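re: ur question from earlier - yeah i can do the single chain one, its not a big deal. heres the input i used so u can compare w yours
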Amino acid sequence: MTSKPDSEEDLAVMKIIEEPLDDLVCWKLAPAPKKLLPALGHCQEIIPSGTSSLSEEDAESTVEQTSETPSESDTASTVERALNTPSEADPASIVELPLDAPDEVDITIKVKLTENHNFTIMIMDESKGKMLEFLVSDSILAASSQYFKVLFRMGDSGVQVDQQGESPVTSPVTSALLRTIGHTYIQCRGDPLALHSILGIIHFCPDENLFDIDFSLLTNIAFVAEEFSWNKALLPWSTVWLTKYSQHALDPGFENWLYVSKVFGSNERVDELVKLLARTCAVSKYDTSKIFRNVSDTLQELNTTLWPPEIKDRILDLRRQRIEHLYASIQILTTVLRSNRTARSSLMSWLNYAKGSELRARLCSSPVCRPLAFGSLVQSIDSREGGFDPEFSSWSGSADGLEKEINKITFNTLAEVILGHKCALQHLKTNLTKCLEDETLLDWGSRTKKIFEEAAVA
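and the output i got, formated as tokens:
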């Protein structure tokens, strides 16, 4: 099925120029991309290309032309350039480019991965302004990927997927296989080097350096593998990659381990990383879904686009629980030290559980010591630079950062004024620190006992 151009201006005549492929082996990765769109969701129809008439100026740059049958003009690398006069186009030689393709896209590089190629995967290298065409085998694609196996079955049966349709696989697609004479084309988006790496592996012509790839490329490979169901086909290679990078999983810059490990079916160090991020990550005051991590004393926003949603939610939930525990601990301390009239009833209900009046008497018999401790505690909290309100859980920094701030808080007792004065209040600071570190104390009663009853006994 072919799509007709709306006008003659939509036509583009292509001419063919030879270009070497040497630059393909020295690509450098661009920074890790944002979430990529479904790879098969941007296919465009390719109409059989024939021989077109060229002007004298254009003919000067023409080296060779390709044809469907082998000849001396066959080449593994071609460059295709649109003419400036669409009206001269031969309708049989038109190639339709994506609607959102850059205006200056005029170069196509063909990469042959097997002699028995009968299928073409096209992908745009945005950084170089080049369209890459990977000449591959549909039988290898079908054998290595359930995605392609189903897609080819749809094509063989004449089934096409409309704009609202969904394929039998997990990702929605908005295209069908588009056949020319003796060939099938499909265009996708993604990272060209990642796609090239995977196609090289499954066609038994991998790059010799693929065992030593950087983590950014591994992340891009994981995305392409997930989109095309190549997870199992890459298993021998992914085992080596995971072994290499598992030792760096907790380091800054490797947070996408949460995604890579999921794609390749590994749980190694995932729980460790989740708990670490829950303690060390901060959030935006205005958008709590944005996560930041302290790297070299600088908060850097993490790209969480690829993270599994359930893992991201777990990190944020653990962070919230941790901060609530820290706030609750300091709130219990301030509530017990202040007078009964100003104590919050919700907190006092827990103190009643711990026999609040009796507890206060056991902390210190002096009617002056406890008010002195409370006053100095409030003064210490207020003096904290960029301090916090212990009554409200509005902290946007990391849980570890909040714990450090609370541990800096001090208070005084009569021992600072009267030589030889001793009371249980002097042990509260040590017990508060122990309570902050204990992540198993999830209720007010347990925290109160940890801070006060042990201090009273001491």
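Confidence is low (pLDDT under 50) at residues 1-5, 7-105, 157-176, 341-346. not sure if urs matches, ping me
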